[in-house]
Design a protein that fits this description.
The protein contains 14 helices and 13 strands. With 470 residues, the protein is an alpha+beta fold. Strand 12 and strand 13 form a beta hairpin. It starts with a helix and ends with a strand.
Length: 470
Amino acid sequence: MKKLKFTLIGLLLFSFICISGTIDLDNLFNYETPETPDYATAFINEPFYNPIDNKAATLGRVLFYDKKLSSDNSVSCSSCHHQAQAFGLKELQGQGVNGLSLRRPIRLVNLRYREFIEGLFWDERTGTLEALATQPIQDHIEMGYSGQNGAPNIDDLIESMDTIAYYETLFNFAFGDPLITKDRISKAIAQFLRSIESYDSKFDEGLALTGGDQNLDFPNFTEEENAGKALFNTSPQLDSMGERIGGGTGCAPCHESRNFHFLVERKNNGVVSEIDGSEVLNITKSPSLRNLFDPNGELNGPLFHNGQALTFDELLDHYNDVDLNDNLDTRIIEMGQPLNLTDEERLQLEAFLKTLTGTDIYINEKWSDPFDENGNIELVGSTVQISRLFPDNQIKIFPNPASSHFYIKGNDTNKAYVIHIYNNTGQIVLQKRLDNNYVNVDHLKSGVYTVQIFLDGKSDIFVSKQLIIK
């Protein structure tokens, strides 16, 4: 069975390579309405201002995989979050443009069903995927658009993206106009991340077979897997010294036993050192326990934020006898210290956690890399054909947002242009022939305007762009 799963995933990954590089905007993948069990949707937390939309999620997929979003074009979000590792990383640290990541990349599984219940990142410093989405891009070590030590900032990234033809089409497709902003980048990436989910595991099949009753043995489980499930969900028996002498291991109070995300207490789990050895006693979140192992039964990378556990046994060693500290999650004490796990119980827990691994997250094309092996992408469909009537990429407006003025940069300086600017009610507020690339707008109020540029003597619009005046 393991070899069969590996072969299936290998064939599908090969098919991705053969068809990658093309996105058909007339035939989008379904990100909006996944087939999710009821017990998962009870935890859904999707902000009203950014519901998943197939168009924006498609843009988010491109942004997630595009190395042009790093300051030296060397890494993307996907460089640290591989689909083949359930959007995690086998290596200890991710390679950024200015060094190695300070903590291990977290697997991006079922985020749509857990944000706001807890924070995001290892230290839970953000509460939404929108807030998370551009932080790695603006991190000096990771993707480099930090503005630190002479490095470019997010505005420089946006100016660079303005020169990329497929982003003009995709932002117009997703948001109704080609304006690129940090907010729109965040929303699109957040939608793509929310769409990544995994509910096709052996556990989900067993839960359906028992009508949602976890107290029953699952008929599709082995005896060892059912024993591990009982250990996970059952409270321990403790002696007068607080040592576990029987019963379960009491994992469920921390890891809700259907979605298996972390129920937050905003304390640490006893792992109090960083990768570099420095001490950290603040919050230590846990990724979802789903897809801790891959379909072949191998770990999807080292465990804990510092990667100190290279095997599942080493993870159990940690919880078997935790070093106490002043900010330790109290539920670890309630598990029993020492936990006194037997060899048989260790194998049972491992067998159970392997049942939480699905298949779809590793092979579904809608979450795969849309670029070809040379880093190119082609957009096809009727929307693209329409957008090509207005080759916006030939002329750029900067800065945007503007204050008192902006400049126009064209590919052909020998052409003469005429500019029209309209306010949000459609009234023309500026009309002039361009004698140079400087346009004065200090007489216009703050707001959103439409800029249309014509070739002198022609009535067809050559460029139509949105301009923000602040």
